[in-house]
Design a protein that fits this description.
Layout: E1 34-39, H1 46-57, H2 61-74, E2 76-82, H3 84-100, E3 106-111
Helix pairs in contact: 1-2
Bound molecules: L-tyrosinamide.
């Protein structure tokens, strides 16, 4: 009785050619996150900034007061981290609210490393 030998590509579902089926790591990348920054200025009232942080960033009065003081002393602070779309919305809401109240408060966003 002759022994049968499988030859290259004569076997059903041949996976011996490494160029055909190679395990690759899934290339799914998480979407980047964006820091929303609040900037200090000399004119916006402290209570207005506290109100902004409560209203648009869901902070308690105590949290908002603490972050406001950090911005006042250090010049800038991260007030939240969001997807690009949510960060843009928050920046727009703060800038619009400040403009409507004629305060020079500035809010920007920055891509996280
Ligand atoms: N520096 C402002 C003042 O003394 C208060 C202030 C805090 C303004 C934070 C902006 O993002 C700000 N009235």
């Amino acid at each position: 009785m002759l022994e049968h030998q499988w030859m290259m590509s004569d076997k059903p579902d041949d996976e011996s050619d490494s160029s055909v089926l190679v395990e690759t790591r899934p290339k799914t990348k998480r979407p980047p996150l964006y820091k929303v920054l609040l900037l200090n200025d000399d004119y916006t009232p402290m209570e207005f900034v506290v109100h902004v942080l409560e209203r648009f960033f869901g902070m308690t009065h105590a949290q908002a007061f603490e972050i406001m003081l950090t911005v006042h002393k250090k010049g800038v602070a991260v007030v939240g981290v969001f997807s690009h779309e949510i960060a843009e919305t928050k920046v727009g809401q703060v800038m619009d609210f400040a403009r409507r109240h004629q305060h020079p408060l500035q809010c920007t966003m920055e891509r996280e490393e």
